[in-house]
Amino acid sequence: MWTPFSYLVVNLARQIRPDEIAFSGVNSTLPMLACLLAKRAYDFRFIYINVAGGVEPVPKKIPHSSSDPAIVEGSPAIFANEDFYDLCARGRLDLVFLGCAQVDAEGRTNVSVIGSWHNPKVRLPGGGGAAVMLPTAKRVVTWRTEHSPRTLVDKLDFVTAAGNMAAVVTPIALFQRDAGKNGRFVLESWNPQVTLNEVAQRTGFKFDASGATPTPAMTRREHQALLDLDPEGEFAAEVRA
Amino acid sequence: MTLIAGLRAASYGVPFQPVGGVHGSDLARINGWQTVTDPYGSGQEVYVIPAIRPDVAIIHVNEIDEEGNARVYGSPFWDHPLTRAAKRVLVTAERRVPTDTLRKQPELTLVPGFMVEAVAIVPRGAWPGSMHPLYEIDYAAVEAYMKDEPGVLEAHLAAAPEARRTVNSQF
Questions:
Q1: Which residue of B has its CA nearest to A76?
Q2: Is this complex's ipTM strictly greater than 0.95?
């Protein structure tokens, strides 16, 4: 049985591949948990670095903020802001988790403004490096806790960043994108607790679902790792259904 | 990243800094960012970000000596590019230590004293933020501050550690 929280964290973790260098940034609690979950639930090696400067951290307590210095704890090295940006720009970050307010079918993101730039309805926090990281990381994965036509949109209000988006995870679906094909998201799998029709209804862009399958259930190890990371259910409570 | 590029241009003493990526972003149009073609013939078109030179950088550090040499334990986040780019650097510190302490491990000194214009000793000065390894983020204080209600700002300022203590400047 998936919760919105478990579906998001586990499916983000499943995007990490063996031997990759993976990065999580600011305001990215779910990807931070996904990277820590992957360390516990999967046997393969990968390098986890984060925006606080942590390299392979072993935090005693998981912070609620993904930029908390606590997420550096246990690191054998500190890799400061300019270091990981440069690493990305020179093509050595394999997987970057980048947040968004809106994402379109081509995997472009808006983290800047709802409405027009000069007359905004909502001024958003800004890209935080997205304009550089999305085109220069080998693969980027984004997520939204809300799956609706206002988050997965046909047309962005503003293009903060465009480039190597590979996947978007929501509480009900996983879309993947191959830049080499037509560059649009295709439905990879969906949460079997909803119908395929509901996924289509709640998505603002058209997508190919011909190859989609129900998302495989959580493994025992994924479930255990999630319990270890969030024993009191505090993180889970932050993701509303 | 483009912000770091702008700070780097200022640190390097040049008017702009080439940066990777940015292609396809509306931010280039909004900010008027230009591109240059590699003058050495690769054909690559690269965005260049104008220098950002802050008038003042203010950072909070773990320890400082009487010369203004400032030591940071743990992750420096933006402190390095920021202090190199700014015209003036002001430092607040958790505590004062003898210069001899810093001499033993000079690699922990993030800003040498000659760059620092003024300092103040402000224990718990990063509140409600965190200061590794001394204290963590005060999430309750941050949440209380985020409420859009009358009196919130005043209550926040009154609860600050420096407001609840008489601070003696040691310099």
A1: B74
A2: no
